[in-house]
Specification:
- This protein has 409 residues and is of the alpha+beta class.
- It folds into 2 domains: 4-52 and 271-407, no CATH class; 103-221, no CATH class.
- The protein is 53% helix and 19% strand.
- It has 13 helices and 12 strands.
- The strands form 2 sheets. A 6-stranded mixed barrel has the order 3-4-9-6-8-7.
- Helix 2 (18-51) crosses helix 11 (323-356), helix 8 (232-249) packs antiparallel against helix 9 (265-308) and helix 9 (265-308) packs parallel to helix 12.
């Protein structure tokens, strides 16, 4: 039941003992403040880490070939190994359930003209899933479709920088580019977080580009985005199997590291995630230590407060106050101080993170923030600790006989 007299008494006690209140509240506020700032910075490290892998799909396997260095299977060394459309189909269909996206790519540099403007650009012949592999963002128009590939359409999706260089005025959609003597219609414009280099690329259907190269079925690279549910260990095993099978198919020695190249981002991600996990543990350990220090601090201060008020407790008992009433009063005062101080600490912590913003991005800390659930959990932990911290010494003091309490100095 709400007792207005008790609340008046609590606030009168707080007002009469400003130093005591500030000391107990400062410990709580400081603990929550440091906890929030530390965890916010830890989240900023995670954000910077995650952004570092947004250039391409994180779950990416890249397959390419080179020249052999070991004679194998009756074939000489220094042999040029090349991929083709059949190799791509064999690779992705070996374990289709593990493939989220995939594309073959035939890359070449060609002269591109539009009106009086011209320049050499990287031409990427690929399928309709290349945009997902490259994390391209559609700015205008559309991406290449399966129908474009099946019909070998002369269509092109250009990077933002290509549009800036060549098509300076008007809507680029529907404009015609001269690519190495063949006319391609622009159907889309994309942006890429990888920067200007990736945005100076032109994507066309791989079937069209292969046809331009005298009907070749050559593939420069195969990209596979494996199922995101796979663990890094399973992804590495999958890519190792792809490499082994492809070497057997192309008659490359298992010991030859130059004939077939398979790069799996899971290998780097595994080490990076382990590093990030260690950093998160360290930040969490320090943050929890700070919170624990706040809990210990308020406990010690509450012991001191109760000891200081021993004579007051004796007077209360002498005039008929029950132990339950005394304990409740001290606990309620403890909770009030903890809640007010905790809110101040939370507010200052959030404000500090807002002020930091992206100013520490050069130190790989981006958009530091703390989830509301974590803040609430930490806040409730301190409030409960404040309750316990007030209850234990108050309960002990309530058991002291009035005459003994009054004699206490």
């Amino acid at each position: 039941m709400f007792d207005i007299d008790r609340w008046r008494e609590i606030f009168e006690s707080i007002r009469s003992n400003v130093l005591r209140t500030v000391l107990s509240g400062f410990t709580v506020a400081l603990g929550l403040y440091i906890f929030i700032v530390l965890f916010g910075i830890g989240k900023g490290l995670q954000n910077a880490f995650s952004e570092g892998f947004t250039r391409d799909a994180q779950n990416l396997i890249t397959i390419a070939t080179g020249r052999t260095t070991i004679a194998y299977g009756g074939l000489q060394s220094d042999r040029d190994v090349r991929l083709n459309n059949e190799d791509y189909e064999t690779i992705v269909n070996s374990e289709p359930e593990k493939v989220q996206y995939s594309t073959p790519r035939y890359s070449t540099s060609l002269m591109v003209k539009y009106g009086k403007e011209s320049g050499n650009y990287q031409i990427s012949g690929a399928n309709n899933e290349e945009a997902k592999i490259e994390n391209q963002k559609l700015l205008n128009g559309r991406f290449i479709s399966p129908r474009d590939i099946d019909n070998k359409q002369n269509v092109a999706v250009i990077g933002r920088m290509v549009q800036r260089d060549l098509i300076k005025n008007g809507d680029p959609i529907g404009k015609e580019l001269d690519i190495n003597g063949s006319i391609f219609k622009v159907i889309g414009v994309f942006g890429d977080d990888g920067g200007d280099w990736d945005e100076r690329m032109i994507s066309v259907p791989i079937s069209t580009l292969q046809q331009m190269k005298k009907g070749s079925d050559t593939v420069s690279t195969v990209f596979i985005a494996y199922d995101e549910k796979m663990t890094p260990e399973d992804a590495i095993k999958y890519s190792d199997k792809l490499k082994k099978d492809l070497k057997a198919r192309k008659k490359v020695s298992p010991d030859d590291e130059n004939g077939v190249f398979v790069r799996n981002r899971a290998e780097g991600l595994k080490d990076s995630f382990q590093f990030l996990f260690v950093i998160t543990l360290i930040v969490g350990f320090i943050g929890m230590g700070t919170l624990l220090a706040g809990i210990i601090g308020i406990s010690n201060i509450m012991v001191y407060i109760v000891k200081e008020r021993t004579q007051e407790i004796g007077v209360r008992k002498a005039i008929g106050a029950k132990p339950k009433s005394i304990v409740g009063l001290i606990m309620q005062e403890s909770v009030v101080i903890t809640v007010i101080s905790g809110l101040i600490g939370v507010g200052l912590g959030i404000l500090t993170l807002k002020m930091i913003g992206d100013s520490l991005e050069k130190y790989y800390i981006k958009d530091p923030n703390v989830g509301i659930a974590l803040i609430i959990a930490a806040f409730i932990s301190l409030v409960i600790s404040g309750l316990i911290a007030g209850f234990v010494p108050a309960y002990r003091a309530s058991k002291i006989k009035p005459i003994e309490a009054l004699r206490t100095e």
